[in-house]
Queue: 4 jobs
Job 1
Amino acid sequence: MEQRLKKIMEKYQIIDSHLHLGVLGYMNILGDPDGSMLKLMEKYGLDYAVFSHHAALASTTFGWEKTIEALGKDSKLYAYIVFNPNHGDFGMKLLEENIGKERFSGVKIHPSWHRCYPADARYKRFWEYAHQNKLVVLSHSWNPDVANPDQKYSDPFLLADIAKKYRDITLILAHGGGRGAYLYKVLDILKENKNIYVDFAGDILLPGLLEDYVDAIGSKRILFGTDMPWSDIRYHLLWIEGSEIDEKDKRNIFGLNAKRLFKLT
Ligand SMILES: [Zn+2]
């Protein structure tokens, strides 16, 4: 397996558009989480990564400090500014002052974590601002019919309604829109809305899924996202490399799409 991984690293530009830095209590990440992540990035040949910091998902001011601190650790790191609608004034200030500067490349939202529907009034000025400024927004998305009731806030169909209204936003649906039937239902959203992208961050690596997506929507709106440290990058590398899709599609997915979208040089 090591040989195969090495070949993938040599052959492709690889950009992880969905990973996390920092500690998260219940994940029991020991030692130096950012240092460990940078080592993994080096080991598996990531050219760049766009991260959201665990601390920034949980807390706005402390999370912002940790995001800045992490950005200083390596020039391969680019950041999502996390927008928490419950602290909207602070979030809007961060966006207005920082987005597009330095290595702040996009915005991460997590409607489930922040328990706020995408169409809630607390998100309104954010969507308007994102539309006016043509921002890239990565949203957690999941099917609502699962044990965790908070997933209802991140239903990809609710997010699609927003992307239909605010056409200049590029919206990335994380985790292929959820699990089970949703992985395929989401294809209808992607076919209808050219401003919606998708990643398969996490452990959503069903056999044949990537082939079906490329057949249905092409490869240009599929991003390589691992969700590290929640999942193991090796699965993701081997899953894409082993898929029966064209070489050009693999190049797009591994890195070229993210390079274009986040204007990485
Ligand atoms: Zn994630």
Job 2
Amino acid sequence: MLLLRVQRSLVSSGKRAYHDLQTLPSTNKPVVSYGPPGYSAVSGHTVTIFGCTGFLGRYLASKIAKMGTQVIIPYRDEDEARIFKPMGDLGQIVRMEWDIRNEEQIAECLRHSDIVFNLAGRDFETKNFDFESVHVSGAERIASVAARSGVSRFVHVSHLNASATSESKFYQTKALGEERVKAAFPNATIVRPGSMFGYEDKLLNSLAMSPWWWKLNSGKTQIRPVHVLDVAQALANLVPESSLSSRTLSLPGPSTLTYDYLLDLVSAVTLRSTHSYVPAMPQGVATAVAKLSQSVWWPLMSPDEVTRRYLNDSETVGDWEELGITPSEIEPLALKYLRRYRSAETYTEPVEFPARPSLTTA
Ligand SMILES: NC(=O)c1ccc[n+]([C@@H]2O[C@H](COP(=O)([O-])OP(=O)(O)OC[C@H]3O[C@@H](n4cnc5c(N)ncnc54)[C@H](OP(=O)(O)O)[C@@H]3O)[C@@H](O)[C@H]2O)c1
């Protein structure tokens, strides 16, 4: 932590930094930074971010590119990769097509990188990719190729609730994926964020658009929502900080809240009622509805998501301090992300936040 502070103060004063002393094991070349700090700097690092085209990945790529690090952007859909071009200086953003099943493409994507992030993950299964193929065999494949190619550091993003004994297949495969990654790349850093909120999230947006789906378990399920920019900054701070290799870092939000409270918060911020006339569904009925809805080709609530709606977030203590970050509470940011759900008449009205209920552990 102290080294991180010293390094930052050196970088901001234009002097050589701690990571200049690192050499890459594959080429034995030193990592040398030069140029002024910021957009046009060159940090000397090259980073590949698998899964960067998603919600968290775009913020991470932007933060890393702004530090002057060359970022390799593996993509499946050309349109998803377009937004990255202006995030870094000329030549600093390199887009490459990839398929998680293709070892050669994975090797090409990380050939020149000294740090590899794996964010690839999906909270629903598709006809081509089940949870296992993305979170377990996919993650293992990327980690093994990275180890074989002599990459210095590997950061794997899992989930706060990853557990081999969970009722949810998503959480089970996240836990199994962690094990396989550690077997393939023993020094890998595992990062476990809680449910993230932000502009493109599936939390606040879904609460505002489909409130009835959040009333499962009578809205009593407890979660620890975390701001996506805090998680992205925590991951970006790992680039110059090599002392956290081999660690598992949990990144839950600062408070434990119920879905019931979050619905009240969304209603207070959007100034729209989250009351619904759809009766509260028992778990069996919700699972049956979710199974039926899988016959359409666009993603709707999956049966595993119904299971997750009944599982409280893990109570693991967060490792924020080691990453130099104080996680943000959801209330001060809710208006920024939810104002678009207000009507023109109420667009500038002030917000009166609901009182937080005291929680009893289930
Ligand atoms: N969002 C949360 O609240 C949350 C909380 C805790 C942990 N996490 C984990 O954090 C990571 C990033 O989350 P996110 O919210 O950014 O997820 P996201 O928006 O769903 O993005 C997931 C990324 O993984 C890629 N991906 C998914 N399936 C793939 C496949 N079969 N082959 C290749 N790439 C694939 C996606 O690529 P395409 O763009 O090509 O589809 C995308 O870049 C995930 O591992 C997720 O499980 C998320």
Job 3
Amino acid sequence: MPELSNTAIADALEELGDLYELDGAIVHRVLAYRSAAKAVREAPVSVAALAREGRAVEVAGIGKTLQEKILALLDTGTIPAAERLRAKFPPGLIAITHLPGIGPKRARLLHSELGIDSPEALREAALGEHLRTVRGLGPKLEASVLVALDAGGGRPPQRAASRILLPRALEVGEMLLAGLREISGDGAQVELAGSLRRQADSVKDIDLIATTTRPTTLARSLARLEEIESVSSAGKSGARARTHSGLSVDLRIARPAQLGNLMQHFTGSGAHNAALREAAVRRGLHVSEYGILDDATGITHTCASEQGVYECLGLAYIEPELREDRGELEAARSADGLPRLIALDDIRGDLHSHTIASDGHNTIEEMGLAARERGYEYLAITDHSASHGFGNDVSPEQLGRQIELIREANERVAGIELLAGSEVNILPDGSLDYEDQLLGELDWVIASVHTSFGMGEQKMTERMIAAIEHPLVRAIGHPTGRLIERRAPYAVDLDAVFAAAARTGTMLEINGNPDRRDLSDVNARAAARAGVKIVIDSDAHRVATLENMRWGIATARRAWLGSDDVGRSQFARADVIDLGGAFVAPGFVDSHIHLTATGLTLTGLYLRHATSRGHCLQLIGDYAAARPGQAIWGHGWDDSSWPEDTPPTTAAAMAVSS
Ligand SMILES: [Zn+2]
Ligand SMILES: [Zn+2]
């Protein structure tokens, strides 16, 4: 008999948590079962197999007791504690807990107060308007309960996640790649395709493409990988399987001469391929996963590389992230239509990070060292402001101290500039959490909405525009508040937000947290087209999540953001301008990622009011003159708002400062 899947074990643990809650268990016990269920559901390998070896405790959130419960479940098909609890409550009561708006806690209340023990009894009580006699319940619940019961509610919910966030799926995909490459040895090629390769927000399945001289052997070897739960078919053209974490896997095998066709076809998206096929037909060409059939000659061309496929169709190569049928085919037909997309290497620093001063897990110095390790030139420390509401936050007095700590750390940590910043809350009326005077002491202010999401579009738009127009706000964090697969964006008029941001030079963020990726690809592209400067950052809450920059870059690439359309290509040699120790400008920043754009306030130097390069130089000169012998750290200036497009020379800057 096959072992239980991770999903089945997770469902059992989840049910046990519900039963304990129904039984009135203390809340952290209930939560422990729920988080264990989540960890099991997402585990890349078989938890049943781990438990058999006594190693299920290696999964986060699973201790010895839980491991025993899992073993009991594997051996007997049930968990004794769950059996006991099930016997204690009428089965109808358990059914009620699955109704939306009820849950175990309310079911318990309904049972003890009104003696309700089944969906039928609940319906009667709702119809008789008895629910409202219980404290905390009202007519609204009566109405929603009736709707849910009429819709056939009361069955256990389908808990399996339908889509998985990119990082987790990519981790599994890369394990499969490594495993298959190892098994197949030399000569075989295995690659990722599908939405994983397009770096989408979330994915439903893993597409693998391989070429080998022994296809059947390779297809069968998929079953031997420890991430694979079951294989439903395997033959010389490929295999279908399912991972322990619930992802379906499609492995397709081709001859090396067809690799390009297969990669192109299975990287998608469906919309991109449909548009591609339609355009090809007009040229007398038929595109499929096997090749390109030429009507005129009757010959099918196969391509070893994707470049070959696009070339054959008269198109420039299209990066996977752009293959969404969002204008990429038209662009690929014109000589210089496709952007050179931004890459991780283009990033020079990170302007959104947290430390133990708010809800982060590392110190300023630890974050600074880790950022330096990544090759960054600067890192802004932006802890949460006072009304954040998630626990730890930074009061105005503490912020003063925090600025000092950042300055001190900056002295100690060589080779990187640590900027004193804040992620300041945008209050419901659009005002900020700190007084302007205090904000004025910071190098970098990013403002975000963290509360009152449901306020309505007009109010929310006014709220955000007020923050955008605040002269000390340099960027808006996670501008729509969405959580991928979990929370919709709040209602806000983005066109109005983009217009305000473009007008004031306030940057909008692509937050790299893989749950957020906010702005989204579509929105970031619209913002950039509206003239908004985009800042890509990690929102790291610990050293390890500085890595989130990667998902921000993925979104930026899907948003067509490049570094050849603005900025850098025009200032190719503007990287470092050493003004004899008076002013060091580490660069005109990358394209849309104008980290510095219209003049960052750095080390007290406020350049945003400068109206021209000359004016800017004047301000720098005045500042330098007041601080003889002192290095001033700053960035370059923005090309879009000023007419001159060459950087100032050392001599020019020296001339103003002397
Ligand atoms: Zn935030
Ligand atoms: Zn943050």
Job 4
Amino acid sequence: MEDHLPQSVRVERRAVSERESRDANGPDWDRYADEYQATHGAFLGDAGFVWGPEGHREDDLRILGDVTGRDVLEVGSGAGQCSRWVRVHGGRGIGLDLSHRQLQHSLRLDEETGVAVPSVRGTATDLPFAPASFDVVFCSFGALQFVSEIAQALAEVARVLRPGGRFAFSITHPTRWMFPDDPGEAGLTASQSYWDRTPYVEVDDASGRVAYVEHHRTLGDWVRLLHAGGFVLSDLVEPEWPEQHDRVWGGWSRARGLLTPGTAIFVAHLRGDG
Ligand SMILES: C[S@@+](CC[C@H](N)C(=O)[O-])C[C@H]1O[C@@H](n2cnc3c(N)ncnc32)[C@H](O)[C@@H]1O
């Protein structure tokens, strides 16, 4: 879940369409972007690649393999930190994000670092790229858990990937959906059904409009989605909480991280001749 909850919203679990999800989450990320970058920017690193709140870095995990000379798309790229890392490591990293304000931060970091990430505003369910344009597509807590029409998003990834291309993404570990989104003791007592896929929704009290949405799929759902989408799953990385790490990020904390996985990183490739 997101690590901010404005006073004026109420939390519900209810069905929401792709359109509602996008219309809520774009403006929500626009509003939140300045605070997000001020709070987490130093931890992420301007040209750093962090896979989740546990702080595991691509420098160590090497989920994407050698990106040198590769065409690499990041879906839900925010301020482009990960794609900047790709560029520094010799790949042709490109970013896509729903939020105009997040992309403005990306431009700011392009100028500050001298490493520019070509980026486009768009949505994961309608990627503005030609078929077979990329060797690698990835998301680090980007887009996927904000999308309702997830099969369409995976179809788009499959379309823009070259045969054999790699698709890797991190999301909130699906088992976290059983627990309240609380970094403390309260976040350790299961209180919701793991199998309840009803989206998490914040509704603006004043207008009654949907203001923020996250979608839940179980581990089995992801395996079936990837298989149906033409992918072969090669790994599911569940990063452990590092011994010395004591940073709270929303519902992620040392107290919970030592007991339950907070992040899941799926690693797959597109079936084909690659
Ligand atoms: C948690 S941030 C992660 C960004 C970046 N990877 C990072 O680590 O800071 C999630 C990003 O996904 C973007 N996003 C949400 N829904 C999206 C969608 N449907 N298509 C593309 N991007 C989306 C948000 O605007 C936001 O920048």
